[in-house]
Amino acid sequence: MTTACAICGVDRSTHGCTQARSGEVYCNGNGNGVPQGWEYIRQRLGGARVYHRIPDPEPPMRPVLLRGDEIKEQAVTWLWQNRLELGALNLVAGDPGSGKSLLTAAISAAVTTGARWPDERLEWTGQPRRVILVTSEDDPAKATVPRLRAAGANLGNIVILRQVEEDGKTRQLCLQRDLLAINAAIREVGDVVLVVIDPVDSYLGKADSNANEEIRHVLEPLVELAEKCGVCMLAVKHLNKSVTANAIYRVAGTVAFVALPRCVHIVGRDPEDKYRKMFVPLKIAHGRRPDALAYEVQQDDEGLPVVAWEADSVDADADDILGSNRKPGPQAAVRNQAVAWLRAALANGPRPSRELLQEASACGYNRWAIDDARKAVGAVALQVRGEGKVSGWAVALPDDGEPHGTP
């Protein structure tokens, strides 16, 4: 059996090439250079050249692989069924002044007292638990605590975290540096099930809220902390000023603010009732997306604002609440006036669509107001034919004709 030399490629016996136990090759052939993966060391006294194999370099990083059958499945657990997930980052976003902090106060009050959630079918059945509020914008004595008390919270189950102490000095908490402090607070307080960070932008440190990689670097450890401690981490965020973007892109900053949380909700005003607020799910990663909830901000006997939930859930979409999918439309009072005007305008029978819109404009109603009014009264569109073809459209009350299309 012949064996080729690793260097010259010729049978070892031809040139007397040998390989030492150390792995070095003594080659007497006249090869054309050093083969890839080998290096020349020296020349022996007998004339043979000594070569050494170059070891394969260790890769700078190695993949961490998990086989599917080695992963232990875990059930999703909820603080609020299909709305706020335990062991996860959650997000509530809304415009400034939309009542986000008041809403988190109502949620905190329910947790600290074990009260029923507003959607009674999905009630909080656990015992009263503790809440940590990471907040800096509101004065605890003038705003935070009075708001919680008015909401019915058990203040003994509320702990406010505003600063951390380091080297004998206090400073504002920073998520990039102080996750250990939040972890320590959760352990020290004990029985914590909810941590509210309001607003999350105040604790980003030097991270650019529009830089996806930087925000992921801040939020991913926060996600891991929520998983480790089994708490519902609830971040509060502002919306940007866009009025045309999809609701997902209305959350200010990079899309990571929506991608990393498991549950994302929008707080907004009912477009048709400025006193009515909406709590609308935008993203529910591990469950069925529930209907929206409506509420009003009322005052208690002391004049403090409180959340008054409506009994029934609402079929509403975040895009509708934020105006992304809505054409400019009238408020409820204007719409009611437009409905009355349209009924009167069509009382004597169908009217040409163009003529009707011109008359409506003269009376102060735009196209969107009339479109809403038509839907409200169930008006139908009729084809106007002349010389065997469609020459225009007319609008009629539902009793005056059958619909044939859209004018």
Protein described:
- With 407 residues, this protein is of the alpha/beta class.
- The chain folds into three domains: 12-53, no CATH class; 78-322, 3-Layer(aba) Sandwich (Rossmann fold), CATH 3.40.50.300; 332-400.
- The chain is built from ten helices and 20 strands.
- The protein has helices at 12-15, 100-113, 140-150, 179-189, 212-229, 256-259, 318-322, 332-345, 353-362, 367-377; strands at 18-19, 25-27, 38-43, 49-53, 78-80, 84-85, 88-94, 130-135, 158-161, 163-166, 169-172, 192-198, 232-238, 263-270, 273-284, 293-299, 305-309, 351-352, 380-386, 389-396.
- A nine-stranded mixed beta sheet has the order 9-8-12-13-7-14-15-16-17, sandwiched between helices. The protein has a four-stranded antiparallel beta sheet with strand order 1-2-4-3.
- A hairpin with a 5-residue loop joins strand 1 and strand 2 (25-27).
- The protein is elongated and about 120 Å long.
- 32% of the residues are buried.
- Mean pLDDT is 86; it is low at 403-407.
Concise account of the structure shown:
By secondary structure, this protein is α/β, with parallel strands linked by helices. Helices cover 25% and strands 27% of the residues.
CATH class category of the largest domain = Alpha Beta
- The CATH superfamily of the largest domain turns out to be P-loop containing nucleotide triphosphate hydrolases
Using the 3D structure, state the CATH architecture of the largest domain.
Answer: 3-Layer(aba) Sandwich
Query: Per the principal axes of the C-alpha atoms, what is the gross shape?
Result: elongated
First-to-last CA distance: 92 Å
Beta-strand percentage range: 25-35%
Cα radius of gyration in angstroms: 35 Å
> Fraction of residues in helices?
25-40%
Strand order of the largest sheet: 9-8-12-13-7-14-15-16-17
Query: Number of helix segments?
Result: 10
Structural class by SSE content: alpha/beta
Poorly predicted spans:
403-407
